[in-house]
Amino acid sequence: MKRLVLVLLALVLWGYVVGPMFATFQQSISGEGGALREYVRFFDFHKGAQGEAMIGSLLISFASVITSGIVGVFLAVLLNRWDFPLKKFCRVMVLVPIALPPLMGVEAFVLLYGVGGTFPQVLAQLFHAPPNTFALTGMPGVLLVHTLTMYPYFYLTAAALLAQSDDSLEEAAYSLGASKTQTWTRILLPMLTPAVVSGALLTFMSSMASYTAPLLFGVDQVMTTQIVNAKTNGDLRFASVVSVMLAMISIFFLVLIRIWEQRAIYRTQSKGGARRRHRITSPFAKAVVFVVALLSTIFLMLPIAMIFVLAFSVNGSWRTAPLPSRYTTHNFVALFSDPRSWEPIRNSIEMSAIAVIGTVLLGVACAYVLARMRFRGKAAVDIAMMLPWALPGTVVAINLITAFANASVFSFGKVLIGTFAMVPLAYFVRFSPLVFRSTAASLAQIDPALEEAARSLGGSWFYSFRRVVLPLLSRGIAAGALLAFVNGAGEFVATVLIYTPRYRPLSIAINDELYLANYGTAASFGVVQVLLVVAAIFVSDHMQEKDTSPQFEIRNSKLS
Amino acid sequence: MTALTLEGLSKTFQRAGTVVDSITLRIENGEFFTLLGPSGCGKSTILRIIAGFEEPSGGRVLFDHRDVTREAPNRRGVGLVFQNYALFPHLSVARNIAFGLEVRGLSTAEIDRRVSGALDQVQLPTAGGARVDQLSGGQQQRVALARALVIRPELLLLDEPLSNLDAKLREETRAMLRALHAATPVTTVYVTHDQAEAMAMSNRIAVLNAGKVQQVGTPEDIYERPANRFVADFIGRNNIVNGVVRRLGQGTATLQLPDGAELTVEANRRAPGLELREGGHVGVCLRAESLKIVSGMGLFKGVLTDVEYNGAARSCVVQTGFGKLRVEVPGSAARLSNGEAVQLAVSEDAVHLVEG
Ligand SMILES: Nc1ncnc2c1ncn2[C@@H]1O[C@H](COP(=O)(O)OP(=O)(O)O)[C@@H](O)[C@H]1O
Ligand SMILES: [Mg+2]
After folding, report:
1. What is the crossing angle of helices A519-543 and A283-311, to 10°?
2. pLDDT tens readout for residues A541-557
3. Which residues line ligand 1 (CB under 6 A)?
């Protein structure tokens, strides 16, 4: 039985995760002109040549790391060190960007800060400048989106470190003669290094994978858009080349992250006496902290607020004013009564639900096998399982396209391209790691002795698993499944490359509505997604054991 | 080095109320002084006021004649050892110890010299390069001590430094602290709730309760001549029996004890300030080791209900007509078993009287 599970697991991982990656690699080196021809093109750094995309991706990723890092650490310090009115409220609200839905979330930034957006209009009127003087386009726009959606990678770990660090460290520094500045530069900030490193790794990886932000801000010179453009032009070989390169970068970062996670993180022992005592005594300082915190929070919440405002706007009622002129609740009524609106929702729910069944089977089996069995190649299984988590959605899609262009054992002898099956398959591959991680976290809490007890009492392995382990895991599994479902229901990046118009998913419907400038309809879809994500985070927060790393929680819902 | 004076020190917190209540103490130059009291009695708060992390609501702190009450903690030159050590997790052992020297801008050579000296002092000569979390609790403790001592503090403050160690390590560290203090007698204020620890280490002890000083004195003073019922109860293994003064004689007092027993003791075996008058109630402290189990002619009669043998001694509990008494007899004494009827004799020179 155990063997069988192991073999099946290896087959599935090979067939749908690792194999397709190799198929893409195969594709990238086969064809006329020698194996390396397209790679040479990829590395052509002349002006206007393909090499610019990689440079663009690397630059934007480095920049994103720096800006997100500054914002994340700044907020963590601001919201965790001092007491001020509404502190709790601010601490909840700065995490709201996690709930931004994939496509609509980025569009909200465009509508706020991009060409014709709210802020450029207001500022242009204020300074009597030509319209769009202040509009963000291109790389700066992408950078803004990355910063304001990826700072939680830094914020969460930094906040956790600050919360657990106890004041005695600081007091020790003071009593040894350090000034306030010295205590900050030598003790408090260096202690945040683990947060900064893990945040930087995650931000870099996510920025490399980011597709929607470059798409909506009209940036062509990044690798993800390069892949999609090549694919759209029918140059699947070049798309494969870029995918392989992007995948290698992602895998490199995945390995770094895994190594970093296994390192001991600084922990301050907090036995007894740990108290937090930061009271601001000067009313002026208190007011400054309060105002800065409140303004930051409001600023971070603007995109979500924008989605909610737009959802109540009449389609086509937004022309030249900073905000739409007419409002209605009709969009929400239409959502459930108009078949044109309801159908994509239903499609997405169905496809995501199908995928979730798969993610649960694979994720649970893999978590169990890795936690409880000894066999050679464990590390390989672990990396293979986490691989789709690190891979950009674009790459996952290209992998599946190249792998299932022809009939194979894994497609049960059918060509899958252009069928309904591709989308659930992509969701299955992309989101299995979520169930895996969440199950693994629960499993780590269960003493192996429980199973041994069950077995010694006469239960078979499978019986013990079913009657003892599974019930104890159920919350972790449910939490992971829920996240997988919500992510699937909103997925855009991979979907856009593989969906069939007969089963138009939600994210594509939003894309179409945005194309038609039907912001009301698109945003009402967005609101549904936001509510789903919030519900999922809320529920899984209550279901899950508190030991998954915060970065991971965050990356569960990604915009890219 | 420095003498420390606390003058009428008080601290009131909004929620917890007055936790330090007009404390006046003088701690001599080079003295090892212990603040002893149950948890929550304000010991740490006093220490934090001395270190400069809390501002007192009233009173002053003097280092020699220098009033430091309003001085910033980083200007006081105080070495502080925390209960949880508070080692900087991102710095190596050596860099932890060097920290206070670095902020003082000492030369690298001087820092290296003093750090390695400090490591030798705490018997960790090779640990300099280690990460803090590679050390055991006991070693971390010693690094914390080295870090506090290396700055040559005017004053060393230790807040329950041994409470996170196991029993054996605690004894070893105790011995090391004593040796360190003997070698370089820096004025030390030591905080603990463990009376054995306090007795073992200190030149003098202040017993605190609810923010107030109950008694200040040498370990012997406090053990043999507790100033009140609280101290008598908190220190040592005292039985406190209620008695009534029957007669006062020439420097003696005859006490009526429960169960009809009578006992005559020297009248000066009493807490300072305690007035004896005929018919007055007193608390009679009978230390466990001053009671003897005898076969007849004892002062009290009872039944043995529990015996604990620990090699050097047997601790017994004797149920009498007026409650349980704790009795400690040498380990070499005859074996005793539960349920045995026994009588207890009191060596009169070990009796001490406190308020009734
Ligand atoms: N910063 C503070 N704010 C409010 N109450 C405090 C603070 N520090 C200590 N206390 C209270 O003062 C009392 C004494 O505390 P402490 O000095 O730590 O006692 P000890 O060290 O003797 O156990 C406790 O009731 C504690 O809750
Ligand atoms: Mg304390």
Report:
1. 120
2. 666 544 444 444 444 44
3. A 277; B 13, 15-16, 19, 37, 39-45
Ligand closest in space to the Cα of B45: 1
Q: Is residue A208 domain-resident?
A: yes
Would A331 be classed as within a structural domain? no
Residue A114: helix, strand or coil by DSSP?
coil
Per the model's pLDDT, the better-predicted residue between A463 and B91 turns out to be B91
pTM of the model: 0.77
Q: What is the pLDDT of residues A280-336, one digit of tens each?
A: 667 888 888 889 999 999 999 999 999 999 888 888 777 677 888 788 888 888 888
| Helices then strands, each counted (H, E), chain A | 28, 0
- Tell which of A162, A165, A167, A176 to mutate to test the B interface (max B CBs under 10 Å): A176
Kindly report, residue by residue over B236-292, the tens digit of the pLDDT. Answer: 778 999 999 998 888 889 998 888 888 888 888 888 888 888 888 999 998 888 888
Q: What is the CATH number of the domain that holds A64?
A: 1.10.3720.10
DSSP A313: B
Label the pairing between strands B204-209 and B32-36.
Answer: parallel
Please tell me which residue of chain A has the smallest CA distance to B150.
A176
Q: How many CB pairs under 8 A join A and B?
A: 96
CA-CA distance, A66 to A58, in Å (whole number)? 13
Encoded tokens for A352 = 């995501």
B46 and chain A in contact, CB less than 8 A = no
Give the integer Cα–Cα distance in Å for A268 and A84: 25
Confirm if B34 and B202 have CB atoms less than 8 A apart. yes
More confident residue, B280 or B336: B280
Strands B262-266 and B300-309, sheet pairing: unpaired
Residue A325 forms part of a structural domain: no
Question: What does DSSP say about strands B58-63 and B66-67: parallel, antiparallel, or unpaired?
Answer: antiparallel
What is the count of structural domains for chain A? 1
DSSP structure string for A262-299 = HSPPP-----S----------HHHHHHHHHHHHHHHHH
A549 Cβ contact list (under 8 Å, min separation 6): A157, A198, A261
Residue-wise DSSP of A427-496: HHHHHHHHHHHHHHHHHHHS-HHHHHHHHHTT--HHHHIIIIIHHHHHHHHHHHHHHHHHHHHH--TTHH
Task: Name, in order, each residue with C-beta under 8 angstroms of B143's C-beta and a sequence gap of 6 or more.
Answer: B85, B87, B93, B96, B97, B122, B124, B127, B132, B135
A295-to-A261, A320, B246 alpha-carbon distances in Å = 34, 27, 79
Strands (E), chain B: 4-13, 17-27, 32-36, 58-63, 66-67, 78-81, 155-159, 187-192, 204-209, 212-217, 238-248, 252-256, 262-266, 281-287, 291-294, 300-309, 313-320, 323-330, 341-346, 351-355
Pairing state between β B212-217 and B238-248: unpaired
Tell me whether residue A488 is exposed, middle or buried, using C-beta atoms within 10 angstroms of its C-beta: 0 to 12, 13 to 18, 19 or more.
buried
Identify whether A403 is part of a domain.
yes
Contact assignment for A175 to B75 by CB distance below 8 Å: no
> Quick one: closest CA in B to A274, which residue?
B84
Query: Whole domain around residue A249: which residue ranges?
Result: 2-269+276-320+350-546
Residues of chain A with pLDDT under 70: 1, 263-281, 319, 413, 454-458, 540-560
Q: Which two tokens stand for residue A474?
A: 């159920």
Do B164 and A271 lie within an 8 Å CB cutoff? yes
Report the Cα B62 to chain-centroid distance in Å.
23
Q: Provide the β-strand partners of residue B248.
A: B253
Q: Residue A296 and residue A474: Cα distance in Å, rounded?
A: 38
- Tens of pLDDT, residues B189-199: 999 999 999 99
- Are B263 and B351 contacting, i.e. CB atoms less than 8 angstroms apart? yes
Distance CA A37, CA A237 (A): 10
Which residue, among B243, B218, B254, B214, has the nearest Cα to B230 in the 3D structure? B214
Which of A173, A193, A272 has the CB atom closest to B99's CB atom?
A: A173
